[in-house]
Amino acid sequence: MTVPLLDVTTVPAYIAGRADLAEVVDATTLTVREVGDGNLNLVFVATDAAGRSVVLKQSLPYVRLVGESWPLSQDRILAEARGYDAAVRHAPDLVPRYHGLDVDRRVLVLEDLSAWSVWRTALDAGVATPGAARDVGRYVADVAFGTSVLGSSSEDVRAAVAASVNPEMCRITEDLVFTEPYVDHPHNSWDAALDADVLALRDAALLDEVAALKYRFLTAAQALVHGDLHTGSVFVAPPGTPGPAAKVFDLEFAFYGPVGFDLGALLGNYLLARARAAVLDAPAHHQAWLAGLAGETWDAFEQRVRDRWASHADTALTDGFLDAWLRQVWQDAVGFGGLKAIRRVVGLAKASDLQTLDGPERAAAARAVLRTARTWVQGRADVAGPADLPDLVLPDVVRPDRAVRHDAPRVGA
């Protein structure tokens, strides 16, 4: 079923028809702007004469990045609503205020965080964001603990797994992260100077590890995960803002999956930011700060899980089990992080971290990401913790001797 789409002229009447929003904004004095710059949805900011505002998000019946040739069910916003429902229960301070879902129109209404910055944008600009990596680690921990058998009964978790299937969005992830970058596919594109590095992605030993990680993604229904937790899905607060330094949004890929997948998405995107800073010769202290983000996120995640362990739901799960579980989550995160980074270089929906660099620097940064990511994927079993995570493998800046390929879309995520 396709539902009518909102536009800037129809949003005021829509809000006026929502009694639950009457105390949030004045529908009679609204100004509306369309701000959606992502790959999938319509997003509007509606502001009244008193300066109060809300965000409305409506799912499109196709992939916006590609167009109507790639249809997509608007029901995916139901999965996003489930994600927000869980986040509000388990990490309410780390997501925008949630004003609920209109099921019939496939519209979510959220707090307007326009005064905040998208984390990727801040990182691209070389801005340090103290506390953000810690807060996203805590977000993953609280939602994972609360929606898994660590914090809920096995009966409740089984029911939640059944209610939270998200097959269409999971298939997109399966294809873009685990399949397409390793075969010839029209979605793929890269700087021609990277031909040898891309060819190396077809190495049999690497493909074995990709297959193992894909199988884990497909089968390990551990907790309700965000499903696309990159730095473009996090807002960071302006300096001096009380409360958390970061809030997570865009949960439409939410599904029951491996906890390390969300952590890995963050690690892979930290690697992109680190490569960008390196080729731009950012100050050493800033590069060191970026290099520490993985540890900051993991330490916050691990500490939060251990802090909550005293209240874990099943007393048959022992302290030794927790240690083993955390080791497995970390190794998953390292492997998934490598794959998430590779896909941003080779596959569809590239990241602005690299795409906004000039050609020679872009090629050098991309080569560093690919080479480092391979070491993560293939060596993850030997990476005991963040201190052992292989650092950026940075080659000399190499100027491409051929034009950049343009056989597929290139967009910032």
Automatic annotation (TrEMBL):
A Gene Ontology molecular function term of the record: S-methyl-5-thioribose kinase activity
UniProt keyword annotations, A-Z: ATP-binding, Kinase, Nucleotide-binding, Transferase
EC code(s) of this entry: 2.7.1.100
The protein's enzyme class: transferase
Residue ranges of coiled coil: none
Extent of the signal sequence: none
Gene Ontology process terms (BP): methionine biosynthetic process
Family designation: Belongs to the methylthioribose kinase family.
Record-given protein name: Methylthioribose kinase
Source organism per UniProt: Cellulomonas oligotrophica
Lineage: Bacteria, Bacillati, Actinomycetota, Actinomycetes, Micrococcales
Gene: mtnK
